[in-house]
Amino acid sequence: MSNINLKDVDLYELLGILSTAATQEVKKAYRKKALSCHPDKNPDNPKAAELFHQLSKALEILTDESARAAYDRVLNAKKAAKLRHRELDSKRRKLKEELEAREQQAEKFAKQYHGYISKTDEQKLQVTDKFSPAPAS
């Protein structure tokens, strides 16, 4: 039997029930799912056996009041962390966009004032050329 990692699995989702389901509903959902993936009914399918063991572990956790309470705390903490991460992603995206905008402004400034002649400077040169005295021949 492979090492079953239930940390990444939502046990309620695995059983197809809501987190508010009563113990009887948990048992009923377990029986229904366990019938379809029982190792005796699927001897050549190792994934079915692994799913059956996950279902058994889910039943064990969700029918024990203290284990279920601990699992619910962990599950809620994971959901809260995921929400915080999603919010941070949007903040990071906004900061990145603002940084790119500032970089574009800095690039425009550098082109305008460091080595490039702006349109207003060109216009000033044209005006001064028109009013400057003609060279003596």
TrEMBL record:
<protein>
    <recommendedName>
        <fullName>DnaJ homolog subfamily C member 17</fullName>
    </recommendedName>
</protein>
<comment type="function">
    <text>May negatively affect PAX8-induced thyroglobulin/TG transcription.</text>
</comment>
<dbReference type="GO" id="GO:0005737">
    <property type="term" value="C:cytoplasm"/>
</dbReference>
<dbReference type="InterPro" id="IPR001623">
    <property type="entry name" value="DnaJ_domain"/>
</dbReference>
<dbReference type="InterPro" id="IPR052094">
    <property type="entry name" value="Pre-mRNA-splicing_ERAD"/>
</dbReference>
<keyword id="KW-0963">Cytoplasm</keyword>
<dbReference type="GO" id="GO:0005681">
    <property type="term" value="C:spliceosomal complex"/>
</dbReference>
<keyword id="KW-0539">Nucleus</keyword>
<dbReference type="InterPro" id="IPR036869">
    <property type="entry name" value="J_dom_sf"/>
</dbReference>
<feature type="coiled-coil region">
    <location>
        <begin position="78"/>
        <end position="112"/>
    </location>
</feature>
<dbReference type="Pfam" id="PF00226">
    <property type="entry name" value="DnaJ"/>
</dbReference>
<keyword id="KW-0143">Chaperone</keyword>
<keyword id="KW-0175">Coiled coil</keyword>
<dbReference type="GO" id="GO:0000390">
    <property type="term" value="P:spliceosomal complex disassembly"/>
</dbReference>
<feature type="domain" description="J">
    <location>
        <begin position="10"/>
        <end position="75"/>
    </location>
</feature>
